[in-house]
Amino acid sequence: EVKGKPLTPVATAYVRARNADPMCSFGDFVAVSHEVDVATASILKIEVSDGIIAPGFEPEALEILRAKKGGKFIVLQADNEFVFPEMEYRMVGGLGFM
Questions:
Q1: Is the sign of the CA dihedral 50, 24, 11, 81 positive or negative?
Q2: Which helix (H) or strand (E) segment is 20 a member of?
Q3: Residue 26 pLDDT more than 70?
Q4: Are 29 and 53 in contact (CB under 8 A)?
Q5: What is the pLDDT confidence band of residue 1, given thresholds at 50, 70 and 90?
Q6: Residues with Cβ within 8 Å of residue 57, at least 6 apart in sequence
Q7: Is 88 helix (H, G, I), strand (E, B) or coil?
Q8: How far, in Å, CA of 96 to CA of 7, rounded?
């Protein structure tokens, strides 16, 4: 429930995406392409989720998320400098995928 909570553009995008199919998220991770702000962290605090990955976190937002699930909520920071290779190759069960 987000009634009465301040919604930043990042928080609004998360709420819209989550509400597209709220029943399907069990054991999910949240991926955010912008810095996570306090408004977004406050919404995530009450949602069922196991972790988040984002390029950055406001200090207060990080504290909110670290406290989620008794400190067991996984918080990952993406590497903004990572450059994808032109082609990736994976071996799975003897099969090569490009």
A1: positive
A2: helix 9-20
A3: no
A4: yes
A5: low
A6: 35, 36, 41, 65, 75, 77
A7: coil
A8: 45
| CA dist., res. 23 & res. 64, Å (int) | 24
Query: Which SS3 state, helix, strand or coil, does residue 94 take?
Result: coil
Question: Do residues 72 and 40 lie in contact, with contact meaning Cβ atoms separated by under 8 Å?
Answer: no
The structure tokens listed for 46 are 């009450």
Provide the token pair at 88: 């990736």
3-state SS, one letter per residue, for 27-65: CCEEECCCCECHHHHHHHHHCCCCEEEECCECHHHHHHH
64 neighbors 41 (Cβ within 8 angstroms): yes
How confident is the model at residue 3, as a pLDDT?
77
Q: Facing residues of 36 across strands?
A: 57
Q: What's the pTM?
A: 0.75
53 has a pLDDT exceeding 90: yes
